[in-house]
Amino acid sequence: MTTLIDGPDAVRAAERTHLGYSDWLKIEQDRVNMFADATGDHQWIHVDPERAKDGPFGAAIAHGYLTMSLSNFFLPQIVEVQGFSAGINYGVDKVRFPSPVKVGQSVRAGAELVEVTEVKGGLQTLMRITIEIEGEERPACVIDAISRWLL
């Protein structure tokens, strides 16, 4: 279920709250291969499942940046912000990849609105997006993403 945040006052009120979770997404080899083609990163631990079986993770793994980029797929499932003329990705303060995602595993994201600050023309938010691996204790990726919401 998507959390609706409508307008500046609602954004401020949502500070320091967990906004929910996305659906699970199974990571298939085709997705990993397409990401490798798009980025030119064809390292064998990602694109050669047979060789990767004997590698450090026992299977082919998703690129860390593929996992991170899925935040753009997951966030609209978690939160919808309205009442602004535009929302802009401003950057990230911190990204970590605590655990690899093996091909065939499922991931989902949770999001927490950590901080809201006033900026010229609107608000800036810091959202902590945690991409979890189904059945694993450690997350795949933790992102402190910064957005600007223009009035």
What's the pLDDT, averaged over the residues?
97
Head-to-tail CA distance between termini: 26 Å
Approximately what portion of the residues adopt beta-strand conformation? 35-45%
Report the principal-axis shape.
Answer: elongated
Question: What do you see in this structure?
Answer:
The chain is of the alpha+beta class. It contains six helices and eight strands. It has helices at residues 8-13, 29-39, 44-47, 49-52, 64-69, 71-78; strands at residues 3-6, 17-21, 25-26, 79-82, 86-96, 106-119, 122-133, 141-150. The strands form two sheets. Strands 2, 3, 5, 6, 7 and 8 form a six-stranded antiparallel beta sheet that branches. A two-stranded parallel ribbon has the order 1-4. Strand 6 (106-119) and strand 7 form a beta hairpin. It is elongated and about 55 Å long. The two termini are 26 Å apart.
Summarize this structure briefly.
This protein is an alpha+beta fold and 151 residues long.
Main attributes of the structure:
151 residues, alpha+beta, Thiol Ester Dehydrase, Chain A, six-stranded antiparallel β-sheet, 6 helices, 8 strands, elongated
Topology:
Layout: E1 3-6, H1 8-13, E2 17-21, E3 25-26, H2 29-39, H3 44-47, H4 49-52, H5 64-69, H6 71-78, E4 79-82, E5 86-96, E6 106-119, E7 122-133, E8 141-150
Parallel strand pairs: 1-4
Antiparallel strand pairs: 2-6, 3-6, 5-8, 6-7, 7-8
